[in-house]
Amino acid sequence: MSPRAALVVSEPDWARAIAKVLTGAGYAVDAHPSLGTFLDALQSRRPEILLLDMHLPGMAGREVFRALRADAESARMILIGLSDRPRSKDEVTAAFKAGADEYFFTPMDPEMITARLRSLLRRSPAAAEEALRHGGIVVYPDSRRCLIHDKDIRLTRLEFDLLVEFLRNPQRVLTRGGLIDALWSGQTSRG
Q1: How far apart are the C-alpha atoms of 46 and 73, rounded to whole Å?
Q2: 35-78: pLDDT as tens digits
Q3: Less Cβ crowding at N or C end of the chain, within 10 Å?
Q4: Cβ neighbours of residue 17 under 8 Å, at least 6 residues apart?
Q5: What is the pTM of this model?
Q6: Residues with Cβ < 8 Å from 138, sequence gap 6 or more?
């Protein structure tokens, strides 16, 4: 599954150029012209990476990063600030203090961007997390995340725990009693 990147840039030419670099490097890119469209899309699809224009109208980029880091469901997302303005030490420092993982200025070197993204993904807690897969279903037990054909699916705690148990035990018949023991005793099997 290709890493999914959300790109939030209001300037169309700049957004197309960055999206072209990312898709050429194998990333699935969801481009958003505004923070509002990104936040709406975040309800149904959580990207692994967010590349955010730090000068969008409405909310400072660092405040967006701070809010995403405070939310348990988006805390592991890789956050990258983008700026087409002259370098400002205070701006970059504020972004990193708010939770940014990286910060790029224009003109951007495509090779540098893709190399840094690969490095960040390798070190990302989400990248190291065990993934259970079957067909189009991908489940991340530690972060309690479920995707079906790359779309985030919300499950109740019990539904999620049952799905994990079934995926950890392919080709096995699981009895009702065994499931009850595994789920309510906290001893999910790894077999």
Answers
A1: 8
A2: 888 888 887 777 888 999 888 887 788 888 988 888 877 778 89
A3: C
A4: none
A5: 0.65
A6: 1, 131, 132, 146, 147, 148
